[in-house]
Design a protein that fits this description.
Number of helices: 3
Strand content: 35-45%
CATH superfamily: TolB, C-terminal domain
Distance between the termini: 34 Å
Largest sheet: 6 strands, antiparallel
Protein name: DUF4221 domain-containing protein
Organism: Aquiflexum gelatinilyticum
Structural class: mainly beta
């Protein structure tokens, strides 16, 4: 259960806001993953690859054991390490969003104490206050999932998960009507614009209650386009981004066999001020855009009866047995990477993770994917191997 905190496709439908269109298409199998190279991070601890710089000259890892950021070059040589766990003015507090490269020399992240930009040695460049004071927050960490950036009209913007309370909570209809998934942040002017509601037809407007992990955003900005999916909802929303906000352009409805349905939770079960994260529910976990391809990482979810079986074992104190069962269940979850053509939004592949890699996720940068080697179950290793991977046509 490494890094768990708190806690193929046969039909494609294109929906334009003004002119819906439907298409049926068999998924071609013309792509595969090819390992181009690898690097080793030689360090004790529990590191996770978080982001790769645009030119792939720098890589940032987060070491959970030491609560430390590690920056390396493209060969894995450590360039710097820093931690902000002390109670200082430049401390981010509870980490709410892993760091992402603003450029080759700066990192941005979100913590309970604000939005922070550091140089690669850990010196604070800028601190931005959250638009609202925070009562609580949740966080799930996956490889390659951190703060996103966008360049609009020549200016640098950040895209961060919105944590505004809007004076409501998931037990009320107002929460779903006023929900916004992201903040579009003008770094220079320190201006926050809340964007991405539950759009018309969203399952999150069906009158039921949902946990934060049910609609956790997976996103990628490329030029002036934003590609985003909300947790367990099988749709890819494509927005036009501008300094004024985001306008919905296209909705791609997805049908993934083996992708479970989100459990129905009555709204009466939600309490104000409580944040609950569930790591085993079905979700689109991350999105990357690489060389004209949109890569959508999906996780089919653990069936409810299996979750109850696991909970019963943990409650009875049978932790070893529960861990074994969890590993077995995880191995049976349908998960992989859907590939769409960025221009046409047509599906061009649906691939399993390469053999021997950590399926929690992957980073991207420099036109490549960067995947962690799966941990050795027989022997604890004192290094983390990263594979440089490329999707190639057969």
């Amino acid at each position: 259960m490494k890094h768990l905190q708190l806690y193929t496709l046969v039909l494609l439908i294109f929906c334009s806001c003004s002119d819906p269109e439907k298409k049926e298409q068999e998924i071609p199998t013309t792509y595969s993953f090819e390992v181009i190279d690898s690097l080793d991070l030689n360090i004790l601890g529990d590191p996770l690859i978080v982001d790769v710089s645009p030119k792939a000259d720098r890589i940032v890892f987060y070491d959970f054991a030491n609560r430390e950021f590690i920056i390396t070059d493209s060969s894995g040589a450590i360039l710097s390490q820093f931690s902000k766990k002390e109670d200082t003015p430049d401390s981010h507090g509870f980490l709410m969003e892993s760091p992402g490269f603003v450029n080759e020399d700066q990192l941005a992240l979100a913590g309970m104490n604000g939005i922070f930009i550091y140089d690669l040695d850990g010196n604070m460049i800028k601190k931005l206050a959250h638009p609202e004071s925070l009562g609580g927050a949740g966080f799930m960490s996956f490889s390659g999932k951190g703060m996103e950036t966008a360049i609009l009209h020549g200016k640098q913007y950040l895209l961060s998960k919105s944590v505004r309370t809007r004076e409501t909570f998931p037990g009320e209809q107002k929460f779903y009507d006023s929900f916004r998934a992201l903040e579009l942040i003008d770094i220079e002017e320190e201006k926050f614009i809340e964007i991405i509601p539950f759009e018309q037809g969203s399952q999150f407007l069906d009158g039921n209650g949902y946990f934060e992990s049910d609609y956790a955003p997976a996103l990628e900005a490329s030029e002036s386009k934003l590609y985003i999916s909300l947790g367990g909802e099988l749709r890819l929303n494509v927005y036009d981004l501008s300094p004024e906000g985001a306008e919905l352009d296209t909705v791609v409805m997805l049908d993934l066999p083996g992708f479970g349905k989100l459990p129905v939770t009555p709204r009466a079960e939600f309490a104000e001020g409580t944040v609950i994260i569930k790591g085993g529910t079905p979700a689109i976990r991350n999105i990357h855009v690489v060389e004209g391809k949109i890569l959508v990482q999906y996780y089919g979810g653990i069936p409810e009866e299996k979750k109850k079986e696991l909970e019963a074992l943990y409650s009875s104190g049978s932790e070893a047995e529960a861990e074994q069962l969890y590993e077995k269940i995880e191995s049976e979850v349908n998960q992989g990477i859907l590939i769409l053509d960025q221009k046409t939004l047509e599906v061009i592949g649906n691939l399993d993770f390469p053999e021997g890699v950590n399926v929690s996720g992957f980073a991207s940068g420099g036109g490549f994917l960067w995947m962690e080697k799966a941990p050795n179950r027989e022997e604890e290793e004192d290094f983390l191997r990263i594979y440089k991977v490329q999707p190639v046509g057969k």
